[in-house]
Amino acid sequence: MNTLTRREFLRLSAIAGAGAVLAACAPSAAPTSAPPAATSAPAAPTAVPPTAAPVKIVLCTGKDSSGSTPKLVSQFNASRKDIQIDYQEMPSSSTEQHDKYATVFAAKDSSIDIVAADIPWAPEFASAGWLLELEKMPGYEDIRKEYFEGPLLGTTYKDHVYAIPWFNNAGVLFWRKDILDKAGVKPPETFEELVEVCLKLQKPPDLHGFVWQGFQYEGLVCDWLEFLWGMGGDFWDPKTGKVLVDSPEGVASVQLMVDMIHKHKISPESVLTFKETESYNVYLAQNAIFVRGWPSFYVTANKDESKVKGVTGIKAMVRAPGKKPGACLGTWNLAVSKFTKYPQQAWEVVKFFSTTDAQKTRAMMGGNPPARKAVYNDKEVLAQFPHFGALGEVMNTALPRPVTPAYPQISVEAIQVNLTAALTRKNTAQEAVKNMKAKTEEILAKVK
Fold first, then answer.
1. Which residues contact residue 35 at a Cβ distance below 8 angstroms, ignoring those fewer than 6 apart?
2. Mean pLDDT, to the nearest integer, of 159-177?
3. What is the pLDDT of residues 90-117, one digit of tens each?
């Protein structure tokens, strides 16, 4: 087999394969009936000298059913005479968005200035030379100190920053407060406690202990990484690129998922067919005590028509004793095209969307966890979304998936296939992580 050049790999992953990997961390679904918007308008960005005519900055994002992005665009445009945002809403599919941007950027087309980018896109697009380095822009350091470390790691590739976190997403554990309270049981903190609580309180097939995303897709990778990190392990060393997954923690994390299905039976075998929607539906139907999910599900669980309204708790994922909980990031970022004709003006737009007031507006209208730390302590935000208090702690330890342009291929060919082989008992957990390591090293060798 011929060795792929990096350019050939990027072209193939951008147009053919990478988009499918990213579906699991698509933008959080907004409530169908949006909550009231924040009353305070975001402060206008620092003015820049006006030009003879306003500079048009094209901003492309996925579909926003909450209405927060159009509202913020209107506020910016009303506050500026020198810059106007031309907001272009893309399809809701992250795959379609990814492929559109890859096509435009590969042609060095300047028709798009700013894109909303899923977290794995930053290293992929940056390695291709498609994104502007932002750490050199005025005011970046002031923004950086207001953000969580994990999301910033996901926007940094080879010591350069290629995007600014726009809104966060990280895996959490939801549970039935009414069931645990009635039994006098506290929410579990460790993997062992989770198994014990499920065995004590579940009544399958009517009430399963724990449901999650076990289908062979990106969501499975996110779930497994949270177990791996929660055991103190890691997939690789981001500084050296050394693959670390073939470790005692790697084996234990895979074995735990296998045992939850086949040994402890706290998760039904049907979990192997579950993505987010299927696992959420089991919980919403009152057929599960715990479900792993993304923060936006809390809004869904508390809609008026929900059977679990008011009885759903949210907390960090369980962990091994003495270890930090793992939370896989699904953060969305704002990135500036390397081919923009107006880099300074595009940066002004990005800075505007990063302000505390803009982040607050988006959080209150869409229920999306903000990128700025301060918004998690805002009284108005907490009054509307009390669970944001717990999410602030989750974000402190949340981590990105491996930051490499090869990640889409690693996810599909090294991680997903070997996890599924273990979960279906075609291979052992030890064989799974050994094969993950070997395939990952093979992929990395071809794209250097």
1. 364, 365, 367, 384
2. 96
3. 988 888 999 999 999 999 999 999 999 9
Q: What is the pTM of this model?
A: 0.85
How many Å apart are CA 320 and CA 325, to the nearest integer?
8
CA distance 413 to 11: 17
- The dihedral sign for the CA sequence 85, 61, 327, 306: positive
Residue 93 lies in a domain: yes
| Tokens of residue 301, six digits | 């669980």
Query: Cα Rg for the chain, rounded, in angstroms?
Result: 22
Shared domain for 177 and 162, answered yes or no, is no
Contacts of 267 (CB under 8 A, 6+ apart): 208, 209, 210, 211, 212, 214, 260, 261
Distance CA 145, CA 142 (A): 6
Q: Which of 386, 394, 359 is nearest to 374 (CA)?
A: 359
The pair of structure tokens assigned to 143 is: 């923004």
Can you tell me which residue has the tokens 């907490």?
Answer: 382
> pLDDT tens across 260-303, in order?
999 999 999 999 999 999 999 999 999 999 999 999 899 899 99
For residue 406, give both structure tokens. Answer: 């090869």
Number of C-beta neighbours around residue 419 at 10 A:
25
Query: What is the distance between the terminal CA atoms of the chain, rounded to a whole angstrom?
Result: 16
Give how many domains the chain has, as a whole number. 2
Both 239 and 324 in one domain: the answer is: yes
Does residue 352 lie in a domain region? yes
d(CA 99, CA 65): 22
Cα separation of 365 and 129, whole Å?
35
- Collapsing DSSP to helix, strand or coil, 374 comes out as helix
Measured in whole angstroms, the distance separating CA 208 from the mean position of its chain's CA atoms is 26
Enter the DSSP assignment of 319.
Answer: B
